[in-house]
UniProtKB/TrEMBL annotation:
<feature type="domain" description="Enoyl reductase (ER)">
    <location>
        <begin position="14"/>
        <end position="345"/>
    </location>
</feature>
<dbReference type="Pfam" id="PF00107">
    <property type="entry name" value="ADH_zinc_N"/>
</dbReference>
<keyword id="KW-0479">Metal-binding</keyword>
<dbReference type="InterPro" id="IPR020843">
    <property type="entry name" value="ER"/>
</dbReference>
<dbReference type="InterPro" id="IPR002328">
    <property type="entry name" value="ADH_Zn_CS"/>
</dbReference>
<dbReference type="InterPro" id="IPR036291">
    <property type="entry name" value="NAD(P)-bd_dom_sf"/>
</dbReference>
<dbReference type="InterPro" id="IPR011032">
    <property type="entry name" value="GroES-like_sf"/>
</dbReference>
<protein>
    <recommendedName>
        <fullName>alcohol dehydrogenase</fullName>
        <ecNumber>1.1.1.1</ecNumber>
    </recommendedName>
</protein>
<comment type="similarity">
    <text>Belongs to the zinc-containing alcohol dehydrogenase family.</text>
</comment>
<keyword id="KW-0862">Zinc</keyword>
<dbReference type="GO" id="GO:0004022">
    <property type="term" value="F:alcohol dehydrogenase (NAD+) activity"/>
</dbReference>
<dbReference type="InterPro" id="IPR013149">
    <property type="entry name" value="ADH-like_C"/>
</dbReference>
<dbReference type="GO" id="GO:0008270">
    <property type="term" value="F:zinc ion binding"/>
</dbReference>
<dbReference type="Pfam" id="PF08240">
    <property type="entry name" value="ADH_N"/>
</dbReference>
<dbReference type="InterPro" id="IPR013154">
    <property type="entry name" value="ADH-like_N"/>
</dbReference>
<keyword id="KW-0560">Oxidoreductase</keyword>
Length: 347
């Protein structure tokens, strides 16, 4: 099969070629519960750029060369002898983690904390290829209204945004405010989920006019340009109190400090993006009673819920399509902020 293969790290992201498009061996069924999916679309994520930088080399024990791509959807190509309920030809979306289902975390539905798991595209070969090896319990059949290339980024970008926005929606009331910092690939989905699940006023914050325009299309009530005055603008919009919930899809640079400053006393700061540090004096934590919440992808049931929203047209992905052989172009466009919404590779 053809695949876009990562051979070496590039900490500065200056190489004209991050991956090589070449012929590699097809994946093979190894366990009775294995499934091979013919890729219909593979999302291009900022995490892929972090992998190229080498940030994940110790965290996930990445062994080069390997194939990136952790946002995948397609059609079932082959199934193991123990697979039931899924047949060849079924259109499916892949939960990003492949787990056995036997550990306590799995039985509780928290697959992302499983003691025995694989994460295609992170610590094993992913979907920047024609075929992907995954597991039967990771697959969700797609309704007729949804096609693989249009939904692939939901498996991480969508699912992570959904998990954070769902948490926030549980305590947001009419007349309250939710701030979304960074309304690109993940954030534009977060805005739509908030709009679907609660009645709070949504404030979108970004430095990109293109991203802010997308946020408006997705249902944001207020747009704030990130230009060093965004904290003051948020305070002005919220009557000086700050927002009841702030979802930070950036998580690096000065976004963290600003996000905490935008959060009202007793409010919730949800951190999704990474690369920076959360630094707050303990006395500030005590006197403000702010809650800081980390967010890691999402569960299988949450991906089912997100597909239900997509099926009803309440959440839509903005995507830009690239051929698999254009993987380097897609990664560079993402790095330089040229992608509106989410890039998707199509074999």
């Amino acid at each position: 099969m053809k695949a876009a293969v990562l051979y070496e790290f590039d900490p500065s992201l200056t190489s004209p070629q991050y991956v090589r498009y070449e012929e590699v061996p097809d994946p093979r069924i190894e366990k009775t519960t294995d499934v091979i999916v013919r890729i219909g679309g593979a999302g291009v994520c900022r995490t892929d750029l972090h992998i190229v930088e080498g940030i994940w080399r110790d965290k996930a024990n990445v062994q080069l060369p390997y194939i990136m791509g952790h946002e995948n959807a397609g059609w079932v190509e082959e199934v193991g002898s123990g697979v039931e309920g899924i047949k060849v030809g079924d259109p499916v979306i892949c939960h990003p983690l492949v787990t056995s289902g036997h550990c306590l975390a799995c039985r509780r539905g928290d697959d992302m904390h499983a003691t025995d798991s694989k994460f295609p595209g992170i610590n094993t070969n992913g979907g920047y290829a024609e075929y992907l090896l995954t597991g039967a319990r990771s697959l969700i059949k797609l309704p007729a209204s949804l096609t693989p290339k249009d939904v692939a980024p939901y498996t991480d970008a969508g699912l992570t945004a959904y998990r954070a926005a769902k948490k926030a929606s549980r305590h947001l009331l009419p007349g309250e405010y939710a701030v979304v910092i960074g309304v690109g690939g993940l954030g534009h989905i977060g805005v739509q989920v908030l709009a679907a699940l609660c009645a709070a006023e949504i404030i979108a914050v970004d430095r990109s006019d293109m991203a802010l325009g997308l946020a408006k299309e997705c249902g944001a009530h207020h747009l704030v340009k990130s230009d060093r005055t965004e904290v003051d603008q948020i305070l002005a919009l919220t009557g000086g109190r700050g927002a009841e919930a702030v979802i930070d899809f950036v998580g690096e640079g000065d976004a963290v400090a600003k996000g905490l400053a935008m959060t009202r006393n007793g409010g919730f700061y949800y951190i999704v993006g990474y690369g920076g540090k959360v630094e707050i004096p303990t006395i500030e934590m005590i006197t403000s009673e702010k809650t800081i919440v980390g967010n890691l992808v999402g569960t299988y049931p949450e991906l089912v819920e997100l597909m239900a929203l997509a099926d009803r047209g309440l959440v839509k992905l903005a995507t830009r399509e690239y051929r698999l052989e254009q993987a380097n172009e897609a990664l560079h466009d993402l790095h330089h902020g040229k992608v509106k919404g989410r890039a998707v590779l199509i074999p």
